[in-house]
Structures are given as C-alpha cells and as structure tokens.
Design brief:
heterodimer, A: about 140 residues, mainly alpha, 4 helices, B: about 120 residues, about 80% helix, membrane (chain A), Uncharacterised_TM-17 (chain A), transmembrane helix (chain A), Transmembrane protein 216 (chain A), transmembrane (chain A)
Chain lengths: ~140, ~120
C-alpha cells in the first residue's frame, strides 16, 4: 500500500543551488578580470593565461551542469539526477582547488573567492547527502 | 500584470542582495588580510610604534565587528528570516553597495584609515 509521504525536496538545498548559480557568475567574472589584471601587472606566461581562462570556463560549465542536475533532481525527488549532481561536485571542487592552490599567481582575493565557493560546495554536499538519504523513501 | 511585475522585482531582489553581500564580504576579508598595507597610509611619515599599534587595534576591532555582523546577516538571509522582506532587502542592498564602492576606493587609493570608521558607521 502506498503511503503519503509529503514533499521530500529540500528547500535549503534549492536556496543554496539558486544562490550558487549567481555566485558562479560573480566568480567567473572576477576570475577573468583577475587574469586580465595579472597579465597587465605580473610577468604572466602566455601558455598559462590560456590554461587559466580555459579552466575558468570548464569550471563554469561543470558547475552549471551540477546546479541544473541538482535542482531538477531535488525538485523531482529523483535519486539518479541527485547522484549525478553529487558526482559533478568532485571535478568542480578539484577545479576550485586549482584556483586556490595551483594557479600561476594566487592573489589574496583569489583565496577569499575560492574560500566562499568551497564553503558553498560544503553546505551543498551536506544537504545533497541528506536529500539522497530521504528520496528513496518516496518509492519505498 | 502588476502582480507579475511585482513578483519579478521581488525575485531579483534576493540574488542582488546576495551578490552585494558576498562582494562586500570579499572586500572586508581582503582588507583584514592586507591590514598593514593600508595602515601605513593613515600614519604620519615618521610614526612611532605606539601610534601604529593604536591604529592597528582600532581597525582590527572595527573589522571584527563587521565580520560578526556579516555572520548575523548571512544567517538571517540564508535561513529565510529576512530573505523576502522587501524594504529590509532594499536597505541592505543600498548600504552594502555603498560600502562596496567606497571600500574599493579605500583600498585602491589607500585612503586614510580613520575614514573606515565613517564608512562603517554609514553602511551599518
């Protein structure tokens, strides 16, 4: 017999995914402008400029996929979509760590921006794990 | 029609407020980190250690209060207490945007650090 379980989608996860999409736009804009600034002020090898810019856009793409899948998976209480979103979290954390640690020049602003990004990732990881634990109950 | 327009305005207030808050937070943390660079600009050309320490304590106290208030405001915002309060959002956006612009001038042109107290007073 099917029991009525109510809505299992997480409001907190949805709020953080929504805000993360806007923060992503700010982050990409800031990183691209910072690359321009570093190229002007510091002796920036041209190969590294290309690498950094490409990685910024790769991060933006992966994050967009992650936020889209996470939001849809959360709203439809779909386990697989949420799990894919959780899987996309790994490359996006690695790429954020690249900008935090292994970039050609790491400014203090970079550290702060990446720190905010990583804390958003951590909060979303937590809420996504909770959501993934509750979704299977909808079909149980 | 009017209701849809109003909803749209309300919806854009939330991300605008979040972005302005985060931008201000990033600037404040960067300021805290590079405190000594800006400190020198508000001291006379030949300053004593006592003067330096006095100014440093002032700025550290002000910046710590700012960060604590950020914590309160971010908690209130994310938990939803003030997320859909429109007048509070508008006030917050105006204050934080003003603070962002003036603080970036403060950092780039290395303004006198007592001015931070005024910025703090007006934007909080």
């Amino acid at each position: 017999m099917m029991q009525q379980k109510g809505v299992l989608s997480s409001v907190s996860l949805e709020i953080f995914l929504y805000l993360n999409a806007y923060y992503l736009a700010l982050f990409v804009l800031a990183e691209v402008l910072l690359v321009v600034y570093k190229a002007e002020v510091l002796p920036y090898p041209s190969n590294n400029i290309a690498l950094d810019v490409v990685l910024v856009f790769l991060l933006a793409f992966i994050e967009l996929m992650r936020i889209f899948m996470g939001s849809k998976g959360n709203l439809t209480e779909h386990v697989v979509a949420s799990a894919i979103s959780l899987g996309f979290l790994i490359p996006s954390v690695v790429l954020t760590l690249y900008f935090l640690l292994w970039q050609t020049f790491v400014l203090r602003v970079d550290v702060v921006l990446c720190g905010v990004m990583l804390s958003l990732h951590a909060v979303e990881f937590l809420f996504l794990c909770i959501a993934l634990c509750t979704f299977p109950r909808a079909h149980a | 029609m009017a209701i849809i327009g109003k909803m749209r305005v309300t919806q854009s207030l939330v991300p605008a407020r979040f972005l302005v808050l985060i931008a201000h937070l990033v600037i404040v943390i960067t300021m805290f980190w590079s405190l000594d660079l800006n400190l020198i600009s508000c001291l006379p050309p030949s300053y004593t250690t006592a003067q330096y320490n006095e100014k440093q304590t002032l700025l550290i106290i002000l910046l710590s209060i700012t960060l604590a208030m950020f914590l309160i405001e971010l908690c209130g915002f994310v938990s939803g207490f003030s997320m859909f309060n429109q007048s509070q959002s508008l006030l917050s956006i105006a204050a934080h945007a003003g603070a962002c612009v003036s603080l970036s001038f403060y950092l780039f042109d290395s303004w006198d650090c007592t001015l931070y107290a005024y910025i703090f007073g007006f934007c909080r």
